[in-house]
Structures are given as C-alpha cells and as structure tokens.
Amino acid sequence: MSLRKYRSRTIAVLRLTPICAGVLLAGCGGSGGMSGPSAAPTQSTHAGSATATFSGTPHPEVIASNGPVSTFSQAGASFSSFIVNPTPNLDATSLLFTRDMPGQGFQVFTAPANGSTPPVELMHNIVSGYSSISKGGVIAFLTQVSGQFQIQTMLPDGSYPHVVLNNVSAVPSISPNGQTIVYLNIADSNLYSIPASGGTPKQIYSGGNAAANGVSWSPNGQQIAFTALVGGYDIVYTMAATGGTATNVLPSAFSAQGNAVVDSWSPDGNTLACTWTPNSSTTSDLFLISLNDNTAAILTPTGLSDSMPSVSPDNRKLAFYRTSAGGATPGIYESDFDGGNPQLVITDPPSNGITGPVVSINWSFFQPAVSYIGAGGLLTTSNVSGFLMSEKGDQFASLLTMTATTPSTAKIVQTGTTTPGSPQLYMLSADAITNISFTNVYIGGHTSFPLTSTTTATVSVDSTTGYVDFVAPGKFQKQSAGSRSEITGQFTAIYDKTGKNLAPSGATTIQVDSTTGKLISFR
Questions:
Q1: pLDDT (tens place) for every residue of the chain, 523 residues total
Q2: Which of 227, 228, 251, 469 has CA atoms 20 to 30 A from the CA of 87?
Q3: SS3 label, residue 325
C-alpha cells in the first residue's frame, strides 16, 4: 500500500456559489506519475490537502485548468480511501441571514463574513425567519407551497431541494452533521425531532412553552439549547438532542431581571451567545452564558440595541444585528468575542435597495475532514478505480469516482479543448465500468448508478461552477467545435447533475454550451 499526501494551503469554507467549499487536488500545471506500490509522491502544485491510499500502479495524473475551474484525476489503481481535510480560514466563511421584507415575507441571504461582496438573495417568501445551516452547508427552513407549510432543506445555491415534513408550521434547526432537524412546532410550543431525510417526528420536549426562536445545537450534535417562557420570563435551557430533562442554565443572578433568548452555541462548546433584554428596557444587549461555571456577562453598552449574536467558527468573534437605537448605523456587525471593536460589515438597509430588518443570523462552519472513499465514505465504502475532482478557485466543487472490473484498465482523459472558457469534457474507460458516483456538494447528497457492459463514459464539468453537469455512459466517437459543441457516439443514458436519467432510451448526439459545457439538448 502507498500513502499519498498533497501540500495544503488555506482554502475557502463557505462562499456564495458554489456554497460548499473544501480542499481539492487541482493544480496550476505540472504532472507526474507513480511506479510501483511504494512509489514516492508526485511533486505537483495542488491546491489543498488530501490523502489517498491505494494499491497497484495508477496511470499518470491528469491536471487541467480552464478559467476559474481546475480539475485533477487519477485512475488505474485500486483506491481504498480518500480523505479531504480543509484548513480553516475565517475570511472564507459566510453569514446566512434572514430579512423580514415588507410585503414579501422572510427572505434568506448569504454574504462573505468579511463583507467583501454584497449579499446575495437565496430564496423568497420563507415563512420562518430562523433558517439554519449544517457543517456541510445544508440549509433547513420553513416555506409555504400551495398554501401548505413545509420544512425543507437545500443547498444555498438552490440545488438539492428536499421536503422533510409537510403540513407543519415550525421553526427548524438542522444538526451540525446535517442528519437531524429539531423544530419548534408553533401550534403547541413543543420541540420535535425528525431525520433530515424525512420520516416520523418524535416529540422531545413537552413543556408547551418553547419560544419561537427555535433551538441552537451543541457543536458535537449531542445537545440543544432553547428558550422557554417560565414565570413571565424567557429563560435558557439545555437538553439532550434526543430528549430528556431540560436544565435551566441562566445564572441565578439574572433571574427575573430580564429576558434571555439563546441564539448560538460556541464551537468550543463552552458558551451560549444570547440576546438579553433587561426589564423595562426598549433595547437589548449581547449576553454570554458560560456553561463551565454558570456565569454570564452583558457585552454591549447601554443605549444601543444589539441582538442575535452568532459565534464565529474559530470562537474569536461575534456577528450580531444592531438597530439605529442610540444613533448607531443599523446593520450586521462583527466584534471580538467580548463585544469589543465592533465593525459594520453589512449595512441596513443595503445599497441595493433591499429593506427590512434582520431576524436571524448564522455563521457558517469550518468544514470537517471528510472521507469520500473507504470507511464511512461519503460516495462509497468500497474501493474505486479512479476519480475526477474539480474546484472553483480554491473551493471544493465536485468529486466523481469510477469502479472497473479490472482497476488497472481504468483511465480518465480530457477530450475537450483546454482553451480558457471552453467545456471541460472527460472520457472514462475500462474493461468494464461497473459504477459511477459523484457529488457536487462537500457534504450531503450524492448520485450513484451501477452500469453493465459499459467500457466508456463521457463526463462534462461545468467550467463556471466546477459541478459535474452530466454523465453519459456509452461509446464516445467525436466532438465538434462551434457555438454549440456536439458530441456524437452511442450513449445508453444521460444522467444530469441531480442523477436523473434524461435519456433512458439512449442518445447518439449531445449538444453542450461551447463555453460552459452545460447540456443543451440530445437526440
């Protein structure tokens, strides 16, 4: 067995499109090969950090760069594991926030946490203002379709939409691993748990007094924090995410002195960031509860009104919303963890004319290390015979794997032109390709389909996003240039980026956009 490691650098974690960032093995030129099962690593300029374990002798790597998208592929060996390990970079994280838009309902936006570019609107008419995001970038939210309330999940670029639960008015919050949603049922003010994939809800809190801001998850996903109305005051509680006894964590010194609403749980697990409104006050303050010693501190000065603190993934900063009270410029601010050095990052109202107050803020996570192949593999737990990875800039875009009957026969070659702005097309070949799997998200949904009697397949990578746009198993014959690139051959199917087979009866001609590589038509 041979262990291969690639040099690492700081990479993006969560930006706008594509939303899920990670590490990729794409390069800026240079290539090499390996000989023998114990060969030394190839010296190439790969962006990011990843570790592959394989046996056999892979063919020389294929590296391509086309505009903002780069790809890296390797085939011809038996790859038993592949792990991507991103490096945290706070400047590359994003804020997910919701505005209450007059006459338009709640609408969700995302923007770089450093305020370097304007916010981008992600979805319209969200009923719940408390959208939440998993470590893998999956968003959970409440919406209304044909008059019916639904809990849904999706990626922030709008892809992979999924209905989790119908006919419920709720405030959902997704777990860090993206597997579970705990929601406040507005009808009875109790908390329920449901798999993010869907299923039967389980009631985990029956006090009938949970507040409508929803819950915050502990970083390990074992506990939740929530606010409940007790004796006329909002009080913060923690509880096992599976249900059980709820524990009041508001320090006794603050009992009956005001209302505490929990907004986020710090990544180190030690602190709850809350909004504190003292009795008879018209303004609110940032408020931290230490779970280590059951103490609390009010951070922001009297006269201003701050709320909805979200702790940064490096545990060093807070993002929060400040109104115009006290003469402040309203908008989303970031401060040190103790509230010091506040800086305005997103103006309210923004210059693009979008109005409406912010009603929730979530700071994106740093991505965890992910196993794509092997033990706990996102794509497969079995060995594969080759892979094709893509990135946009330094952000993870997609990963595709292929499995062959005889791994040494597997090859991945680029068939399209390398001219900047042209499609990135690849041919997969082997004595028999038995499976192709791919994902266009760092953590989350993926597509996998078995194949029989297939020796070749064509893959198109969108040269604007780095996503796999389609996979066409079958015999590739030729590709013509022009305003539309035309690929001819005998294709048994065409799978789009969601895994849907668009051509179950096959196709002989595929037309793609000559700039992006996106599928236009087929016949």
A1: 122 222 222 222 222 222 222 222 322 222 222 222 333 232 222 334 678 889 988 988 888 877 778 888 999 999 999 988 776 778 778 899 988 887 777 888 888 888 888 888 877 667 777 788 887 778 899 988 888 899 999 876 677 789 999 999 999 999 998 899 999 999 999 999 999 989 999 999 999 999 988 899 999 999 999 999 999 999 999 999 999 999 999 999 999 999 999 999 999 999 999 999 999 999 999 999 999 999 999 998 778 999 999 999 999 999 999 999 999 999 999 999 999 999 999 988 755 556 788 999 999 887 777 889 998 898 999 999 999 998 877 667 889 999 999 999 999 998 866 565 567 899 999 999 999 999 987 766 788 999 988 999 999 999 888 899 999 999 888 777 766 788 899 999 999 988 899 999 999 999 998 888 889 999 9
A2: 469
A3: helix
Residue 204 and residue 175 in contact, taking contact as beta carbons nearer than 8 Å: no
Comparing C-alpha atoms, which of 438, 443, 423 is closest to residue 499?
438
**Structure letter (DSSP) for residue 27:** B
Non-local (6+) Cβ contacts of 480 within 8 A are 486, 488
**Residue 283: how many CA atoms within 13 Å on its side-chain side?**
18
Is the bond preceding 18 in cis, omega lying within 30 degrees of 0? Answer: yes
147 CB burial (10 A radius; 0-12, 13-18, 19+)? exposed
Amino acid residing at 145:
V
**At which residue do the structure tokens 């760092």 appear?**
442
